[in-house]
Amino acid sequence: MKTNRLKTRSAVLLQWYAGRSRMQKICMLIILIVFLFGVLGCVALYHNFHKSTINLANAILDEGDLENINNWDMKNEQKLVEWDAEPEDFYTLVIGLDNSDSHDGMNTDTILVAHVIPQNNIVKLLSIPRDLRVKNLRGSEAKINSIFANGYNYAVRQARENPNLLSGKYAQLGHNKVPEEYISSGMVMARETIERYMDIDIEYTFLVNYQSLISLVDLVGGIEINVERSMEYDAPSENMFIRLEPGVQVLDGEKALHYARFRKDNRGAAFHSDDFERGLRQQQIIVALIDKLNSWNNLPKVFEIIDTVSSNLKTNMTPNTMMAMVKEYYGKIATDHIYSLPFPGYWNHPYVDVEQEELEALLEQFISIDPL
After folding, report:
1. Hey, where are the domains in the chain?
2. In this predicted structure, what is the pLDDT of residue 331?
3. Alpha helix positions (H), 51-131
4. What is the percent of the chain where pLDDT is above 70?
5. Strand order in the sheet with 313-315
6. What's the pLDDT tens digit per position in 126-146?
7. Average of per-residue pLDDT across 330-335
8. Looking at per-residue confidence, does 307 or 116 come out higher?
């Protein structure tokens, strides 16, 4: 009976189609083709987004670390749930690795925490100095930029002794494909350490490499930056040669990376830049990118950009959540509602230290949902 009904409906549709004019048929075919391409495009877009997703619940941690993470299962369940578009603030961690052609380092080169406050259309950015003195999950002192590597290397050692710890899933890290558990272990260790230091709960964690920044800036056609000083540095071992002059200018991907990474200068210590200035420059690049994307007023093009760079990042944010957030917030958060907070501190070889009172004042500003 069901087959007969389908045949009847098909015959009716064919009869109706045959009765249309030639122009109506052409228009309907065009609409059908556009619809099919749209569906196929969405499927491909979702597939590429999906490549960036990583499960942080499979991190390999020792018992001592697990004991110092309260409610491990509950925390990671919470971080894997879909975003429900409720206007509540949340925290995001961005970890930047140097996986350039020159080397495949595991120490993090960039650590940035964002407080996203959708109910007020505000984002607060805070760059963490690489040499900041923190306590790892065992209570030992360490530089913050070593925590990811510690988690990664622990997972490698444990997996060699017990291969059953690995799921068989692999992820791209720089030039190599490695077991997903290695990356998730480093990300979780970094996230948990920063959560404890700042007394916050981080919802989403992103691991990116330098190619992400280069690709993104090039895809948007460059970003306008006011370079406040001359920069001149050669690092042949890293294939990096920085030459920037003061003034407002459009930087391509490679020059934007140079601007973000610059610390030492060929001309001597008087021309060097510290990690605090470096962090503010990185935030400046983020604001310039958001300003450029907002200026397009073109959501499909923004999705194309994100799709392209997704292969160079790993995150526990699901594809559905990523797309929903872009749709919800695109164009709503203006650059004058993005606040860059300078990190207080001083150099105390070999660490960056910060006075407790200054840290508390900073965190009070950062955690507040009110504008600065």
Report:
1. 1-50, 51-367
2. 79
3. 63-67, 72-80
4. 78
5. 313-315, 202-209, 90-97, 108-117, 122-127, 338-341
6. 999 999 999 987 788 999 999
7. 81
8. 116
- pLDDT single digits (tens) 152-204: 999 999 999 999 999 999 988 877 889 999 999 999 999 999 999 999 999 99
Residue with tokens 């981080």: 202
- Summary mean pLDDT of the chain: 82
251: Cα separation from own chain's centroid: 21
**What does the pLDDT read at residue 47?**
53
Specify the amino acid at residue 292.
Answer: K
Query: Cα(200)–Cα(135) distance, rounded to whole angstroms?
Result: 16
To the nearest 10 degrees (0 to 180), the angle between helices 275-296 and 210-219 is: 40
Reference 155, options 200, 189, 193, 132; nearest CA is 189
| Selection from 190, 181, 188 nearest residue 157 by Cα | 181
The tens digit of pLDDT for each residue in 96-114 reads 987 554 445 688 888 999 9
- Helix pair angle (253-261, 210-219), 10° resolution: 140
Burial of residue 150, with CB atoms counted within 10 A of its CB: 0-12 exposed, 13-18 middle, 19 or more buried: buried
Residue type, 287: V
Architecture label for domain 51-367: 3-Layer(aba) Sandwich (3.40)
In angstroms, the CA 214 to CA 309 distance is 9
Q: Which one, of 127, 107, 133, 142, lies nearest residue 275 by Cα?
A: 127
Cα dist from 177 to 54, 169, 170, 182, whole Å: 14, 10, 6, 11
* Cα gap 46→69, rounded to integer Å: 33
For residue 362, what pLDDT is reported? 96
Q: Tell me the backbone φ, ψ of residue 334, rounded to 5 degrees.
A: -75, 160
* C-beta of residue 307 within 8 angstroms of C-beta of residue 46: no
